[in-house]
Design a protein that fits this description.
Order of helices and strands: EEHHEHHEEHHHH
Strand order of the largest sheet: 3-2-1-4-5
Number of helices: 8
Strand content: 15-25%
Largest sheet: 5 strands, mixed
Length: 194
């Protein structure tokens, strides 16, 4: 089994960090089944949603497994962003081991991670700089993390309507900084990032 892992939301001022974990059987042709798969940052929201819909359908058919794990702004403030992401990676792998379509021994799993991410040491793993742009399975994980996190921020915008989370998703845009200076921070903000 091959597993790809990437995160979304490392840098925003508000909201959780999301870690996407996608598992496919050896030999599964991701490029063929997910045409146009690429780094989520290089795709339009519409294309990300379309690819995520294909991922959901493949998961329902039992071809692939995926999960997206969140760590909240408060948790990030308590333990730091790097540790929060590491914990979400571990939780994502544990989740797939329990409910995934491919139940196999840990030693049979090959984990590919983007950037500086690391899996727990019992996994065979490889961290690839810019892996979200070069490895289709990491690209799928980045799409899952981004789509689910963006949807979550749109829902949270209804609870905190004066910040514009549905537009900037918590990132440090001009509009977000303007809202912060008018309203101050809210429960979704990472105080250590402000």
């Amino acid at each position: 089994m091959r597993v790809g892992i990437d995160e979304a939301g490392r840098g925003p001022l508000a909201g959780p960090v999301a870690v996407g974990v996608v598992a496919v059987p050896q030999g599964y042709n991701i490029k063929k089944r997910f045409p146009g798969v690429a780094d989520s940052k290089k795709l339009s929201p519409k294309k990300r949603e379309a690819l995520f819909a294909l991922l959901e359908a493949a998961a329902k058919r039992g071809e692939v497994s995926y999960t997206v794990q969140f760590k909240s702004a408060a948790h990030i403030d308590n333990v730091g962003i790097a540790k929060a992401i590491s914990q979400a990676v571990a939780r994502g792998l544990e989740h797939l081991a329990k409910v995934g379509a491919q139940k196999v021994c840990v030693v049979d799993v090959r984990v590919l991670l983007d950037g500086s991410l690391k899996a727990p040491k019992e996994y065979r793993q490889k961290t690839i700089i810019r892996g979200d742009a070069t490895e289709p399975i990491i690209s799928l994980a980045s799409i899952a993390a981004k789509v689910i996190r963006d949807r979550h921020m749109v829902r949270l915008a209804k609870k905190f309507p004066r910040y514009g989370f549905e537009v900037h998703k918590g990132y440090g845009t001009k509009a977000h900084y303007a809202a912060l200076s008018r309203q101050g921070h809210c429960a979704l903000h990472r105080k250590t990032f402000l």
